Amino acid sequence: MALDFSHDLKVNQHGGRHMGREIERKFLVRGDAWRGPEGVMVRQGHLSLDKERVVRVRTAGEKGFLTIKGKAEGLTRPEYEYEIPVQDAGEMLDTLCTGHLIEKIRYYVEHEGLTWEIDEFKGENQGLVVAEVEIETEDQPIVKPDWVGDEVSADPRYLNVNLAHHPFNQWGGKGES
After folding, report:
1. Which of 82, 117, 152, 163 has its CA 20 to 30 A from that of 173?
2. Bridge-partner residues for 81, per DSSP?
3. pLDDT in tens, 130-139
């Protein structure tokens, strides 16, 4: 297992704009074998919520992002992400967001040709650690690292938008792998 912490967010691999769709699987994480020496502090909140779309603002390290996500069909959903000035993103987080802000440290781990993003949540979601992997097609086979636990891709509780309104620490400890 090679660790790679050289980039801030996957979106930066596309020049600051995600390519219009996201296919992602999400899993609970077991233990600390994935842990690397550094991660990126992420703060995010939601500017607009409805059943068809979500508008999110995020800071990741010294960068800011505005993201629009559409309704998922299976594991796939429309997603557009744009880099914005980090100061603007911080002001939006502090004044315009609904629900709790999501605070987490994001780590990157390369495994079997895929980049796994591990989010160690802080604040209202302290204790939750999830791993996400982006894939090219919904039926793409993946080789899970040993530290990957139960899949929660279909469980809406683990969506960041839901964690902002129903934080993990209010679940009574449910959800561990």
Report:
1. 117
2. 67
3. 999 999 999 9
